[in-house]
Amino acid sequence: MEIQKWLVVVHAHNLGATAGKPFGVRSRSPLVGWRAMSDIAIRVEGVSKQFGKTLALEKIDLEIPRGIVFGLLGPNGSGKSTTVRILATLLQPDEGSATVDGIDVVRHPAKVRERIGLAGQYAAVDEYLTGHENLVMFGRLSGMSKGDARMRAGELLAEFDLADAAHRISKTYSGGMRRRLDLASSLMARPRILFLDEPTTGLDPRGRLSLWTIIQRLVTDGTTVLLTTQYLEEADRLAQRIAVIDHGRVIADGSPAELKARVGDESVEVAVVRPADLPAATQILAAATSEEPIVDVERSRVIAGVSDGAAALARVSAAIAEAGIATDDLGLRRPTLDEVFLSLTGHVAESSDAEEAE
Length: 358
Ligand SMILES: Nc1ncnc2c1ncn2[C@@H]1O[C@H](COP(=O)(O)OP(=O)(O)OP(=O)(O)O)[C@@H](O)[C@H]1O
Ligand SMILES: [Mg+2]
Prior knowledge:
The chain is α/β, with parallel strands linked by helices. It has 2 domains: 2-256, P-loop containing nucleotide triphosphate hydrolases (Rossmann fold, 3-Layer(aba) Sandwich); 264-334, Alpha-Beta Plaits (2-Layer Sandwich), CATH 3.30.70. The chain has helices spanning 2-6, 12-15, 80-87, 109-115, 131-141, 146-159, 175-187, 205-220, 232-238, 256-261, 278-288, 309-323, 337-345, 352-357, and strands at 40-51, 54-65, 69-73, 95-100, 103-104, 116-119, 193-197, 224-229, 241-246, 249-254, 266-272, 294-296, 301-306, 327-333. Strand 4 (95-100) and strand 5 form a beta hairpin. The longest helix has 16 residues, at 205-220. Bound molecules: adenosine-5'-triphosphate and magnesium ion. Adenosine-5'-triphosphate (ATP) binds next to strand 2 and helix 3.
């Protein structure tokens, strides 16, 4: 069962099957029309999914062009894994439709599985096999010859820094090593469309950096990657396009630059020492800038977009000094995706599970 889940076979002759095919249907997504339909690797239209009382996905639309990293960014419980699991045919949507490589995920799940690689949120390796044996098994299940599978396994073990542990049973691997082995197994058959569900969670900084390099190389070679992450920095760094998802709804999509542009080119940020000064600092920022400030109560910070960076900073700084407000930080900043999230949702990227628990 587990094996079936991860079984991916690339049928190279099938990959171009939809290329050049004329399509007339247009989606409601804001990404519509920016590329010809045949260049779309993954399309999601009006997909909803409910678990008991939890509406995990509420009519989401996505259009993912081929050959890019698409970042699905959202906090805990926002619906990232549910989206991936539907696209990887492990779950069925309640309503709406989705295609991967032009193939309907509900009607032809087996065909979809032939085209994809998946590294789920929780590593699925056989603990009683060695790293090398795990990879060879995946390769063989995907129809590779023994020789090819062994060669590919060797390459991937080296690439994922597992060569030294290749012949140890994976039960003895650390969490990060298992994670890397799982990622390597998703690449055995060189899938053209790859789903990575929070691939860097649990990796140390070095492991994270090397995975970023591997992902970038895959995309240079033409692979389409749907990557979920809660790390804004990761989406910013890797993804050409990002959809921000919150409480099962896509609340924004675009390139990292487009999303950042929504909160202004630059912003002035003030962090106050005493939380009680936050309202006064907010008022000062509102008076000195053209935009309504965004308040991050938890971190005692307030941010406002500005069009005249240095001059605005000087105004704010003078007014803050005059009001006698002690600051931890006062400066001019380029927007981060954190601010994008904050401005889109009105809250910082936090767990909706935690909210529910409250
Ligand atoms: N099998 C399930 N049964 C019941 N509820 C579920 C199930 N799978 C997901 N959910 C709920 O659906 C919502 C979305 O879950 P999902 O796993 O898609 O979130 P996520 O964005 O991947 O979160 P995380 O960052 O924690 O992995 C959550 O509220 C979750 O509790
Ligand atoms: Mg998840």
